[in-house]
């Protein structure tokens, strides 16, 4: 239940976006919030956004890593 979340369960949302092969990154604050619940909740209304937008780097393996 969300009302049982305490202050120590806050997390800052860090979004990292990079192309995977020919596919564009599809990360968003909204999706991240839903993934965190019900164990954690956002500490701030804004996310820290990191990306390789405009980079010439291309992923040739097409692999994805998700870190928590």
Secondary-structure topology with pairs:
Layout: E1 10-11, E2 14-17, H1 29-36, E3 41-42, E4 48-51
Parallel strand pairs: 1-3, 2-4
Write a structural description.
By secondary structure, the protein is α/β, with parallel strands linked by helices. It has one domain (2-51). 12% of the residues lie in helices and 18% in strands. It contains 1 helix and 4 strands. A two-stranded parallel ribbon has the order 1-3. It has a two-stranded parallel sheet with strand order 2-4. The radius of gyration is 15 Å and the shape is elongated. The two termini are 21 Å apart. The model has no long low-confidence stretch (mean pLDDT 78).
What structural keywords apply?
68 residues, alpha/beta, two-stranded parallel ribbon, 4 strands
In short:
The protein has about 70 residues and is α/β, with parallel strands linked by helices. The protein is built from one helix and four strands, in the order ββαββ.
Helix content: 10-25%
What profile does the largest beta sheet have?
2 strands, parallel
Mean pLDDT comes to 78
DSSP E strands, number: 4
Radius of gyration: 15 Å
Number of helical segments with 4 or more residues:
1
Number of domains: 1
Element string (H = helix, E = strand):
EEHEE
Portion in beta strands? 15-25%
Oligomeric composition of the shown chains: single chain
Strand arrangement within the widest β-sheet reads: 1-3
Q: First CA to last CA: what distance?
A: 21 Å
Give unreliable regions as ranges.
none
Helix and strand content put the structural class at: alpha/beta
Assign an overall shape.
elongated
